[in-house]
């Protein structure tokens, strides 16, 4: 699997989650919110989303999304936040293996791409069957170590 952007391999770490069983819409909004944050800030934010104390602002898919105080339209995509947090933790472990400073890490790029759906069948009346699809997502997170500017 190719990454969306190429980075300096000595100052960056990356992680991928393939065929994650979450909604592409929720994953896109969570990843879009987390992009550009520092690592510890992003982890705290995702844990608050999982505990439903912080909402994720929705900017693209606004059909019947209710208003949350302070952010506008938003939801609590717990399942998507769990998988993004898991991928973020994997990227952090990869950064520690490369001996990067975890306090200086910033999420340079975070992408959620729809994966091919998996087709299932359900039983119906009179011996027939109906099909439905499970949506899947590929998540890519790239962390980069910031240089000190004085």
Task: Name the CATH architecture.
Answer: Alpha-Beta Complex
> What coarse outline follows from CA principal-axis ratios?
globular
Share in helix: 25-40%
Predict the CATH topology.
Ribosomal Protein L22, Chain A
Order of helices and strands: EHHEEEHEE
Domain count: the total is 1
**Number of extended strands:** 6
**Approximately how much beta-strand content do the residues carry?**
35-45%
Which stretches of 5+ consecutive residues score pLDDT under 50?
Answer: none
Return the average pLDDT rounded to an integer: 90
Structural class: alpha+beta
CATH superfamily: Ribosomal protein L22/L17
Number of discrete helical segments:
3
Tell me the layout of helices and strands.
Blueprint lengths: L11 E9 L3 H11 L4 H12 L5 E2 L9 E2 L3 E4 L2 H20 L7 E19 L5 E17 L5
Antiparallel strand pairs: 1-6, 2-4, 3-4, 5-6
Helix pairs in contact: 2-3
